[in-house]
Amino acid sequence: MRRSILFMPGNNPGMLLNADILGADGIILDLEDAVSPKEKDAARILVRNAIKYLGYRKSEVIVRINSLDTEFWTKDLDEIVPFKPDFIMVPKISTAADILVADEYITKLEEKLGFEKNTVKLMPLVETALGVENAYAIASATPRVRAMLLGGEDLTADLRCKRTKEGNEIFYSRSRIVVACRAAGIDCYDTPFTDVNDAEGLIKDAEFAKSLGFTGKSSISPRHVADINAVFSPTQADIDYAIEVMAIIKEAKEKGLGVVALRGKMIDAPIVNRAVQVLEAAKAMGVKIDE
Amino acid sequence: MSKVVSSLNEIIDLLKIEDGMTVSFHHHLRNGDYVLNMVLEALAQKGLKNLTVNASSVFDTHQPLIGHIQNGVVTGLEANYIGGVVGRAISEGVLAKPVTFRTHGGRPSDISKGTAPIDVAFIAAPTADTMGNCTGKYGKSACGSLGYAFADAQYAKKVVVITDNLVPYPLTDFSIPEIYVDYVLEVDSIGNPAGIVSGTTKITRDPVGLVMAQYAAKAIQASGLLKNGMSFQTGAGGPSLAAAKFLMDIMLKEGVKGSFGLGGITKYMVDMMNAGCFESLLDVQCFDLDAVESIRTNPRHREISAMQYASPNAKSCAVDSLDVVILGATEIDTDFNVNVHTDSNGYIMGGSGGHSDTAAGAKMAMIIAPLTRARLSIVVDKVLCKSTPGNTIDVLVTQHGIAVNPLKPELALRFKDAGLPVCDIHELKRVAEGITGVPKRIKLGDKTVANVIYRDGTLLDTIKSVR
Amino acid sequence: MEIKKLATAGTLESSDAFITVEPNENGIELNLESVVINQFGEEIEALVYSVLDELDVKNVNISINDRGAVECVLRARIETAVMRGKE
Prior knowledge:
By secondary structure, chain A is of the alpha/beta class. Helix content of chain A is 47%, strand content 14%.
């Protein structure tokens, strides 16, 4: 289930202790922006221990390391990779070459540790104009890259435009990221909505991201998680339709019919695929489905 | 005839207060109260000894009480709640005789039955007239309801009203009538407004608290009790208030019109009534300025006495008509017994208040608490003090799951059907200890420092000294 | 590993611990304060010695002000303080 991913500060024991009960499908334990330069060592050790000992079971674990132009990122990987987080998020990725640097380092670590290759997946954070333009190259650079996050705040600074709630300024970037990720066959997450107190704005923003094709949305506030999950979950109408589609396909197969229609619409392969995805998501959410 | 006297000294002489008597106080001025300290100081100055203080609650501002205990002025203490400062001294054994803890319902019951006789009741009244008609709704020290003081007024041998807003006779909008009052004393100030109605308690922003509050509201929705005519009470803690807010959202969305909100009343309960979630509020104590304003101006916001709130000795009381109550806990054991009297080291820092009364009365009594607090599990094998018996607690809501009392299997089924994370309370304990480790059971002293009296007058538990 | 200078790690917030390490010549001296001393005092003490042993620290003055940190947090804070003190 991949709808919401939630940023958690990496040097806050109280937050780390409860990171996986906040309803987020993935938690991003942050060693980068949420940690001051003087505490990078402390956060790295704390996050490593949190993964090692707390064994987060209810969420995927994503660790955002420091960017490749800092002195911290190799140490981050040295400490974190041995404990097999689901994803390493690498910030400020602008080219395929960037992500290959991280990939290569992780590959060496995995070899040393005796892990199967690509045990630890990569989620590049694309937050520069160059990164957006190279999105497909980044997404398809290595099989280790399995998801991508768009970072709207840094991106708009790079674009030299104002970040607005409406988000017209990142419309192109969002679409480009979705197309690149879908073309490469990986998941894509939308940038966080940063007004913690505007629930309506959040829902609108999330619904728009969903309409563009994003897998899910990131969040900087636990209070946004429930709404994001709701937006990116299949609706009851979606589920009902998917059940109908599957039923009619089954019937068609039994009767040996080649072409079937439902509600006057031809049921073809993409519609069936979509129905399968909806039902899988619904099952993952715990919705009971009688088939 | 005039009841107005000029000083506390004069009252002590007129009433012939003697060594060994019992004096009583109520706690609507909460941590802003000056009256208890003022009266005890005067009694101490007179050289009186061996007094028993029966206060509905004791707060940290009553720290001078410790000195009066050390000097032998006070040798007995009865209360429904004792804050951490005085509580610590009690736990360390400052008082030779055990404290008597009651509940908000048990106290007026025991007072009316004569098992807790009061010689002189001192009523802190934010407004009073010269004959003693008094109210908490007006005046610079306004506190709203005077609910806990009614039993004292009605049953004490002598009653003194102390006010800082003396008005001409008759005060028409009175709570406690003159028929019970012997004397009236005017003083400069009965309390510090900042401590009386602390600013509105903020709804928690703590993400864990919000997760629990969401579960609590959904559990109420799934319980089958959320329907027109529902009655509701909630504590004033952050997660409880957040749960009330989420419940309000659900009620408004589904068009559910409740019957009454009960208890200590906060702004959030007032908001719920005004939004149409409740027909009325039954108020034994106001927690904030919005509640005080509401009880003063809105006839649907009704003051009730502690007897009507929760007394098992009354012919009926409001908790018996209560559907849902949300409560807190410092510890809960695997038999669902709850401790709200002591902290995890055994020091007294609270009391039942209305906890066990509402749990006994409500159709669904729900505890909301984080599974761990600073490396301590909320769920334990055996609570250090049984404040509320487990057979009256139905549900425990934590961020890691919801445990339902095995006495209520149908409730567990309803929650499961609603997709709520129901689990066994032993499983919650295992999860907690997986996080914290298994704590060593603390060793307490041999001396009994308090007896916890259940609302029906029976001994529920004893609290031991801390070594 | 030798502690060469005074170093600290952690905070005094609830669920965290504040650790101070200082050079010492005569083995390990531990000064422990904890809000859960009654429930976990012995465990915490044992943990400190075990973590110091893992890090091969033989001589140190270590002070711990524990605000209810769970074991993995205590471990992290001790390790951080030691790493900072050895430099």
